[in-house]
Amino acid sequence: MAELFIKQAEQYAAGRPTYPSELFEFIASKTPCKHLAWDVGTGSGQAARSLAGIYTNVIATDTSTTQLNFAPKLPNVRYRHTSPTMSAVELERNVAPQSSIDLVTIAQAIHWFDLPNFYQHVKWVLKKPHGIIAAWCYTVAEVNDSVDALFQPFYDIASAPYWDPVRELVDDKYRGIYFPFEPVEGADHTGPSQFTSKRLMNLDNYFTYIRSWSAYQTAREKGVELLSDAVIEEFKRAWIEDGQDQKVVKFPVYLRIGRVGNM
């Protein structure tokens, strides 16, 4: 998975949305203690930055050193490069001891994981019974009727052959993802619950977001430029139709959240 994002790590850091404060406030409201959070698959640290404002300490791990180089340096965030499959010894050395973590977060990444193996690690490090796991994804950008009408066939048809099959879990809003945890206090299910991320973007920002896709990189490696001159011109016409260079772009966010219980 990490290999898919190495070549466009800078675009990923610049083009991807941050996550809404309401998302983190909701997650934090379900964690009785706020001493230690582990952000898995942190990439360039979009979620770690927000967690650092709530939790005393944050461990942020990723299998890509290239992406970690673009993560924000914060005094209470400890970044670690980890192997794709960690042993129990590596987990304790690089992350945390058993039953010591209040919250595990996975932002736009859990669909890439070996879930049975990963969940064993999660159940080992989370405090029992109230340790929380929160995994979320965001689906495609929503701009306005004109841009979205052009984007939809671009995403559904032009880019479709270059997405990894796990992308279907994101398109399904994480509804079908394996998630063997108990509902948090006050809930009767583990989600998905919807939030919305908003970002002010111009057309160049929008193209940077598209170029950060794994599908965009895969297509280029196969000799296909998804953002050809003709496609760029079509997007330009749609973008300037309302006379506004900058637009509020929405990214629907879908959260699965649960507690470890006494597993």
UniProtKB/TrEMBL annotation:
Residues 39-132 form the Methyltransferase type domain. Coiled coil: none annotated. Pfam families: Methyltransf_11 (PF08241). SUPFAM superfamilies: S-adenosyl-L-methionine-dependent methyltransferases (SSF53335). InterPro entries: Methyltransf_11 (IPR013216), SAM-dependent_MTases_sf (IPR029063). GO terms for molecular function: S-adenosylmethionine-dependent methyltransferase activity. It comes from the Eukaryota. PANTHER family: OS01G0307686 PROTEIN (PTHR45180). This is Methyltransferase type 11 domain-containing protein.
